[in-house]
Amino acid sequence: MKKKIMIVCIILYSILSVFSQTEYSIQVSARWMENTPVGVEVEYTGDYNGIETTPFTIGPYNEPFTVTLTILEDHIWQWAELRFSCWDPICGDSNLSITVTADQATPDVSLLAHYFNIEPTPPGPTSPPDPTIPPGSEGSIELRPADLTVNPSDAFPWEVYADSGARKLAGYGIEITWPMPQGGVIMYVDSSIGNSGVEAGADGFIAAVNANTPGVLTISGFDTLGVGPSSNLHLLTAHFIAGDTPVSGALVSLRVDSMIDETASAFDVVRGMDAVIRIQEISYGDVNEDGAIDIIDALLVAQYYVGLNPAAYTAPLLAGDSNADYVVDIIDALNIAQYYVGTCHCPNLPPKE
After folding, report:
1. 19 with 44, same domain?
2. Which of 52, 87, 311, 340 could form a disulfide with 98 if both were Cys (CB 3.0 to 4.6 A apart)?
3. How far is CA 152 from the centre of its chain?
4. pLDDT above 90 covers what percent of the chain?
5. Per residue in 93-109, pLDDT tens?
6. Entry pTM
7. Does residue 227 sit in the same domain as residue 321?
C-alpha cells in the first residue's frame, strides 16, 4: 500500500512539475518616432544564436538563458534615413550591442531598439505619396539639430521647426520627452528663460507650457490667422541644462498631438521627429588638452578668472573645475598648481601618479 501511495505521489509531482514549468523568453522590437515599428536585423549570440528581423521572440525555453544582441545595420525606411539611438530600458547608452538574461527574476524580457531620423528627404520615385492621404494634409514638427552634443552642465537651446506643407499652421500641441535614469539626470528644462523655458520662434506662437514633470515638456500654441504655408517654420526654442554625467547618446522624443490650420481643420497625418543628445566626457584639469595637468593649466585657469580668456584654454569651461563646485575661479587655479606638485587631492582631478 505504501509503495502504491509513493508511486502516485511521484506521478502527481511529475505532472505538477510539467504544468508549473517556468518558461523564459526575450521579445525584441524596434521603433521610430511615435511608436512606428521598424524592421531591423539583429544578431544574437550566447546560449542561443541566430539572426532575425524585428519584431521577434527568442524562446520560450524551459531554462534561464543569456544572449548578446547586436544591431547589424542602420535602416532606410520610406522617406527618412534612420540611425540607431539606444536600447530601452537602458537609453543613455548608444552601444549597438546589449547583453540580457531571462531568469527567475525576469523570465519575460522586453527590449526595444530606438531609432531617430537623421534628415528627412522628400519622397522620391521609390516611395510615392500615400494615395489614401489627401495632398497637403501632412505636417511634421522636429527638433534641430537632430543630433546634439553638449558639455556637462551646459545651458543650451533646442529649436523646434514645423513643416506645414501647403497649408497654414494655426495651432499645435507637442510633447518632448527624454529618459530619466536612476541616479542621474540627462537634462532638465531651464525654467528661468521665457515661458517656463520656452520662447516663441521667428514664425511661432505659444499659448501654454507645462514643465512640471521631470523628463517631459508639453507645449501648445495657436495663432488666429495662422503662419505659412512653409516647410521651415521656426515655431519655438526650448531651453535646457545638461546633466553632469557623460552620455554617449540618449533619445529625445517629440510627439505631435495635433496640428490645425486657420479654418480649425486638423492635419490628417502629423509626425514628430526624434533627436539624440550626447553629453561629452570632460578631462578635468587639462584645460589646454595636451594630455597633462601642470602649471600651464593653472596659469590658464587664473587668466580665465581675471577675464583674459586665453586662447590656449581649449577644453570645455568646466574642465577647470577642480573641486566639483561647478565654478571655475582662482581656487581652481591654486588647486591645479598644488596638484602639479603633489599636494592637492581634488575631487575632480585624477589620482596623482
Report:
1. yes
2. 87
3. 15
4. 39
5. 557 788 889 888 888 88
6. 0.59
7. no
